[in-house]
Amino acid sequence: MLTILMTKEFHLSVLAECITLGAKLSMQTYCRESEQPAAGRHQGDWKLDHLFQASQLTLMRHINNLVNHLTVPHEILNFSDTKDQQMSKNAEKFEDVLSDIISLETVFCLASSLKQYLTSLALLPWKPKVPLEFYKDICRFCTFTMECVGWLLGSGSMPSGEQLCTSLQCVNAVLQNRELCVVIGHTDHVTHVCSITSAVHHIVTSLSVLPGQHMCVHIQHEETPAKTQRKNDLDYLTRACDQISELMQFALKDVYGGTKHVNNLTASLVSLLTQAIIGLARLPVLNSFARTPPVVWKMGWIPTPSGEPKTKLPPLPIDLMLDKDVLKEFVLRNSMIGWISRQQFEETWMSLLGVLNPSETDNEISQEEHMERSHCMVLAVRAITAMLVQTMIVPCPGNPTQGVYDIQPRDKPLAFLHTRCGKKLSVIRGIVEQELQRLAHTRSGKHSGAGGTKYMFDANLERDTAHDEYSLGQVSIESIWSVVGILEPNMETTDSETTDSIESPNRMDTPLSNLGPALATSPSDSTITRDQSLSEAGLDVHSCLQFLQELYRQWLLPAASNKPSLMLLNEIIKSVVCLSDLFAEREQFDWLLDTLMEVYKVHPTEDELSMQYLVVAVSKAAAVVAMLKDRLPDASTAEKVVKMLDTSLRSTHVPSRIAALHGSLFLLEANIAEVSKSLVPILTDYLLKNIQSQSQLPVSNERQMLTLWATAFYLLENYYMDVRDTDFPAQLLQANMSCILKKLGFMHMRKLSVLVSSSSEESVSTAVYLAIFKGLERLLLTDVLTAQDAEVIVKLSVDSLYVSRDRLCLSSPQRALAALGLLFTCMYSGKQYDGYSPRPRDQGAFNMDEPQNLLQDPESLIVAMERVTVLFDRIKKGYPYEARVITQVLPAFLADFFPAQDIMNKVIGEFLSNQQPYPHLIARVVFQVFSNLHEQRQQVLLRDWVMLSLSNFTQRTPVAMAMWSLTCFFISASTNKWLRNLLSYVLSRMGKIDTIDRRLFCLAAKDFYCQLTDDTSRRSFKSTFQTAAASQPELPYSELVDCINKL
What we know:
The protein is mostly helical. It starts with a helix and ends with a helix. It comes from Dreissena polymorpha.
């Protein structure tokens, strides 16, 4: 394999696809073998697929060959500076190399492959590392790629959008790799950092800054004599520090709402630039300048840099930190970059504490100075909170470029996913979920390397999948219980490896929602990983929290002598809500509940900004403390909490109502009997009234709608027994889909979800739409619905994908994929509703030798085939993106549900249809369906179907498509692995009839002819093509007949 990839004929544009396929095969091997782990096997023992290893070695050899042609040692390049003579000489050398030896096409092909290689490594579960010997070559090549972009900009040849994105994706992948980031940021590679920073700065200034303007204030430095070469290098590094400071200004405007400078740039390009800027800003040689607000240079601060090289600035003096403008930008920059060492964390911590406790120089200060100081203290509290919250980033606390905030969803893992049907659903639904996540991040302009399906069915519904920001409900009450050690260690989990048979023992007595794991009695893996990383970094978060708790206690006491201002009090309460996710002791939640309840009693209700956070904090503390007191809270306390929530729900302030819903979710998760008894009716009434009213508005608050639906679905799943007997019209639950859409004044939450999700895209945002479908899927999988309820959801999923001449439902691919996922969930979980179920896992697919009584009844088969027809119609008339996803999962879905004779006619008919806009995608479906038959040793059945279809293929027009279709058909039917591996190449030749296409056609047809064992079939095969060749002798059919005659 390596020999093939290293040949001169191998085109490098294919290398990225080889890496992707190799990673996919590695993942398949891992999933297959991890189900039955070998004794003594460790996480690092997993091997990469041979294709991935060969692709890796090929990539590194090409990169090494390219790097060997570059100048040694590396020289800094800045194509935007035409006055610098040294830069001009370096640029001339660079142009000589680029014009004589290396082509730009090769550079960007390798950059794309390198990006795909590093991304694939990060996604594999056992986290393989880049081989140590490739580190320097990768870093040098990454630098060269950015220099190529700078050269194109400097020479007046604007790089294409694809080239810009490829180069930025490559540098981001390197900067987000922990090992490579350390190498490129080493002091020996300062010139690499300077060149990359210069290139990124050149891109931003060329595309978004008008001539004669600057991104921010110019920085003043002490004059240093340039007598030695080392001083010249330091001058270039100083310039890079200036540039990263300006680039941070660009990134801040992007992240915190500025749009003037990016009007001519796409959201995806701005996101890539922002990621590159933050990655560069975290490198030690640039970090100090990136974190320092440029406004301090205007204020006359001229520090003496230290360190090696001399680019490390001392902490800002306290008098500058007390300036509101300086502190505000300092907070924004530090929140965006994070911290890079324990020393930096501690220095920043002490500087911010100095703002919270300034030395009093005068007992009497003016009102304006008091307001200024209060504002600074608010910013300091906000910065300290952000620093501590960033310790929840996994797997690298404090590093937003190499991780995401730890999420502990409130929903329990689904027992159904551990059944045979559930495991099959996870595979198919996981593919759809990955595509949904990719589309979601494309919609928001953000690029996520996660791409996983860890929280496919149990992510909090109020979280928009397109964003990864820290939010309320980040950590569940159960996970807090496990961290503080409240749960009993002997709480056992129930075996979830249940059968998918309807007649499973105790099935009717034990709902699936009760078959899953019990309450977690130990912290999650991500929490353990985070704690280990903090321990390795030497950070003592616990001491920080204790100090803040004592400080906040002094401010929050009703009798406190130094009461905080209103805006500071608001920020303190907000800080406590966020930091409570980090609490690890029971006493901390006791303090939180007691203290904030006292604040709530005396605080004016008119201050809705503070009250919304008080409601969340008190509810959260009460939910945790309820478990501490053996679920027997004081009756008056429970009544006060419920009254507090009821008051907030009635508020006209939308954020207060959202906060009340979050507080309710905390209490519902804790399942406090005294609270739930009075809270559930309040919530039910509120949800029905508001979902109905909000859905009728042309524009609604997305965040509010997400929280409303999250609460509604959580109630239906976990408190179904409390709400099922409400006085809702029973006949509406059984009405068909068309009647439901015509009805007004719907008063049932389940029906409201159907009504809202079926409404127009203008009235329901994509995020809300996806949340509703996720909630419906979870209700199906928890088995709390009746058959009639489930049938309504099934009809919704089919109707959402339905295509007719008059309308195309769900013009958004994202919405269509969500409906597709719901349809699959309905099919795999709804066997008890329509009687048509997938085969058990150990049987792979349908076996024609199995007893007839195991096959489903004809009516169920018709219903299931109608749903398959909907999918094929969606392929024809949907977006290309949808067609690709559907055809990717369709073969496995068909194999799980239908016998071969029931699907062959449908699949072949679609392949032959002249109205099919994506025959190359259907060809892959045919290939995979045939592969399933090969695995079942159904070669006889397969050959019979091919023989029956031959005449239909030969009659297809134009001839080029007929020949191409037959070639794909014969390759799919072949058992020759070498011939089958040619499918991808043949697919790329669609509609062509050149010499190579004729040869491939004859080769594939002869192979099938040789598989025919009886003379009757051979004569029929030959006769079919003789008849086709007789009408038009010049067609390739005549060549095939001649080849057969020579056998």
